[in-house]
Amino acid sequence: MAIELSNLMERSLSMLSSDHKSVVSMNLFVALLCACIVIGHLLEENRWMNESITALIIGLCTGIVILLTTNGTSSHVLMFSEDLFFIYLLPPIIFNAGFQVKKKQFFRNFMTIMLFGAVGTLISFVIISAGAVHFFKQMNIGTLKIGDYLAIGAIFAATDSVCTLQVLNQDETPLLYSLVFGEGVVNDATSVVLFNAIQSFDLSHINLSIALKFVGSFFYLFIASTMLGVIAGLLSAFIIKKLYMGRHSTDREVALMILMAYLSYMLAELFYLSGILTVFFCGIVMSHYTWHNVTESSRVTTKHAFATLSFVAEIFIFLYVGMDALDIEKWRVVRDSPGKSVGVSAILLGLVLLGRAAFVLPLSFLSNLTKKSSHEKIGLKQQLTIWWAGLMRGAVSMALAYKQVRC
Amino acid sequence: MAIELSNLMERSLSMLSSDHKSVVSMNLFVALLCACIVIGHLLEENRWMNESITALIIGLCTGIVILLTTNGTSSHVLMFSEDLFFIYLLPPIIFNAGFQVKKKQFFRNFMTIMLFGAVGTLISFVIISAGAVHFFKQMNIGTLKIGDYLAIGAIFAATDSVCTLQVLNQDETPLLYSLVFGEGVVNDATSVVLFNAIQSFDLSHINLSIALKFVGSFFYLFIASTMLGVIAGLLSAFIIKKLYMGRHSTDREVALMILMAYLSYMLAELFYLSGILTVFFCGIVMSHYTWHNVTESSRVTTKHAFATLSFVAEIFIFLYVGMDALDIEKWRVVRDSPGKSVGVSAILLGLVLLGRAAFVLPLSFLSNLTKKSSHEKIGLKQQLTIWWAGLMRGAVSMALAYKQVRC
């Protein structure tokens, strides 16, 4: 009887502590988010700092503290999953970017953006893949199949739309912002098409019909994703206007806008389309139509609520990346063969730099040919900024890499 | 080689489909939420319907459809966990209730609310426990220990604060609303204290020192939870006022308010306090102090964003409850011994009715003795409404029951 009871107590205690551990880490994470906001605000005047860098540094420091207190077994408090990122954090960021983007500037440069996002990504992909084949074969790092080289190209051709938002300011440099961010959004669609194509097509003998299929599937994905976003946006505008939702309550309008936008993203994922592209266009349509059909207080609420959601999601990501930088497991492989790791990283970095330069400069030249007024043309300084601002490789690359490892 | 490849393909396909299944259910759930809002809006004029009932009915219908399409194996699309409820859905609902509550009305009736929430819950607990001991012993339903009977009392003495919000309207019946909802919030603290006391104290021989300990731990829990909520609210007001957050951006103010409120709830859970009580008082303090220190657009945003969050969380819960009503597994035990199940349910229902009547009527009488003006007194009709409105047993009871089963 006594043993039974103590057994029972033990079980309930262990249950409690496992629940409690997740409560502890939630507390720590929310407290760190608060700290990032306050410190980021205090450092506002400093031109080298912003919330994201603060979050990165705080994450790094927390990682060190956790590493020391757990005797070097782990540096994070939360298990970060792809799902968490793609289902909860990414949609509000991209939706808000579409919602707040300067539409006039964006659509005026639409052709250039498409050129950069579609053709540019392809050029980048070809150069990185070819470079990887050329250099890695001499380095003796195990045998890789042709599909693996192409996957490397696709992974490193995917830029990070979230980081881009941090580098450029929409109000100060509207042209550059719309070009680089727009490219990032279209790039996502291209990367997904590329990656799926690599996994499903037989790539050992590429011929015309496969190339045509490839182009066709890009256009299908691009048009279908865009249409889905536009339809979701228009539908929300129609429902809110027709049913005169604001008559009874503001909350219903706001809730419906958020849910419809989220639904468009999830539907895109359901049909294997590009959710980023869909929710981006949904944001554009909602800010252009739905937003003008809601009550005044809904307008203020949606504008700030979406921005806040996106803001918190961004800080969350950077905080996590800071903690993740110290992950012992990930550094172990580097310790085993430091020379090779540095070599591979350097080659990939060089290829990414080269691959981006190889399309920004010629495509800017092409785009400039179509523009008449000189202030619409992309100058050399701006071309260099575009080249530099889009260099970051972020969450989409990471997710594609995980996918490749799992297969 | 060919086998390896097909193996690989199979694995990646099964991976994909398991991921895809969760995407499908997310889509269905978000679409149903949208449908609830639109249909709830269309039925606004109907006095028998509101969003919650719509959500319940839609959930029920969806459950039937899923039950038929899966050949009767399952009726939900999402696995509902205690965590989902207590970590994500409950905090925004209770926080918003505190944020929007009419403070004057609430604090004027503070003593009555405390009387109902603390003493009333105790009376209810004693009656239900004693009744369970008396009736269940004659019914031959297996041997239960004294601790089990007390746990039954504690579980069924916990009312549901969320359901209460649906029954009464703050604008139409402010006195009743503040009494019943306030009681629900204090009731949560009492239930948690009761339940923890049952699990940790030796209850076979109750004496004065245990009773004193019990009263002491109630006051500790009540005061500590309230203080935590008040401190979190004041701290947010202080930070936002001192640092003049609104100068740079509205988003930071809104983000900080949400995060601080959430942090107060999680801290309460961390220290085994009553999170509901904490976040409720945090909401009251934030609406009284913080809200007046933020910019005009933050005021509009927070007011509507919190209401929207709470609104969506409530619909979510009712939608799920509708689906859950058809859970085959839960009905199986009823089919095995229908007579006994109906008997136990009827006895418990009777005890809950009796236990509530046994404190609402005498405590209202006591409370009326202290009031001078006749319109502040609680009339018999109002007493009956209080008795009726607080009868619902909801998520807190369910969570406590799960806890008891797991131990």
TrEMBL record, chains A, B:
<dbReference type="InterPro" id="IPR004709">
    <property type="entry name" value="NaH_exchanger"/>
</dbReference>
<dbReference type="GO" id="GO:0015386">
    <property type="term" value="F:potassium:proton antiporter activity"/>
</dbReference>
<keyword id="KW-0813">Transport</keyword>
<feature type="transmembrane region" description="Helical">
    <location>
        <begin position="55"/>
        <end position="72"/>
    </location>
</feature>
<feature type="transmembrane region" description="Helical">
    <location>
        <begin position="149"/>
        <end position="168"/>
    </location>
</feature>
<feature type="transmembrane region" description="Helical">
    <location>
        <begin position="218"/>
        <end position="240"/>
    </location>
</feature>
<keyword id="KW-0915">Sodium</keyword>
<dbReference type="GO" id="GO:0005886">
    <property type="term" value="C:plasma membrane"/>
</dbReference>
<dbReference type="InterPro" id="IPR018422">
    <property type="entry name" value="Cation/H_exchanger_CPA1"/>
</dbReference>
<feature type="transmembrane region" description="Helical">
    <location>
        <begin position="113"/>
        <end position="137"/>
    </location>
</feature>
<keyword id="KW-0630">Potassium</keyword>
<dbReference type="GO" id="GO:0051453">
    <property type="term" value="P:regulation of intracellular pH"/>
</dbReference>
<dbReference type="GO" id="GO:0098719">
    <property type="term" value="P:sodium ion import across plasma membrane"/>
</dbReference>
<dbReference type="Pfam" id="PF00999">
    <property type="entry name" value="Na_H_Exchanger"/>
</dbReference>
<keyword id="KW-0812">Transmembrane</keyword>
<feature type="domain" description="Cation/H+ exchanger transmembrane">
    <location>
        <begin position="31"/>
        <end position="402"/>
    </location>
</feature>
<feature type="transmembrane region" description="Helical">
    <location>
        <begin position="385"/>
        <end position="402"/>
    </location>
</feature>
<dbReference type="InterPro" id="IPR006153">
    <property type="entry name" value="Cation/H_exchanger_TM"/>
</dbReference>
<feature type="transmembrane region" description="Helical">
    <location>
        <begin position="306"/>
        <end position="323"/>
    </location>
</feature>
<keyword id="KW-1133">Transmembrane helix</keyword>
<keyword id="KW-0739">Sodium transport</keyword>
<feature type="transmembrane region" description="Helical">
    <location>
        <begin position="23"/>
        <end position="43"/>
    </location>
</feature>
<keyword id="KW-0633">Potassium transport</keyword>
<feature type="transmembrane region" description="Helical">
    <location>
        <begin position="84"/>
        <end position="101"/>
    </location>
</feature>
<dbReference type="GO" id="GO:0015385">
    <property type="term" value="F:sodium:proton antiporter activity"/>
</dbReference>
<protein>
    <recommendedName>
        <fullName>Cation/H+ exchanger transmembrane domain-containing protein</fullName>
    </recommendedName>
</protein>
<feature type="transmembrane region" description="Helical">
    <location>
        <begin position="344"/>
        <end position="365"/>
    </location>
</feature>
<feature type="transmembrane region" description="Helical">
    <location>
        <begin position="261"/>
        <end position="286"/>
    </location>
</feature>
<keyword id="KW-0472">Membrane</keyword>
<keyword id="KW-0406">Ion transport</keyword>
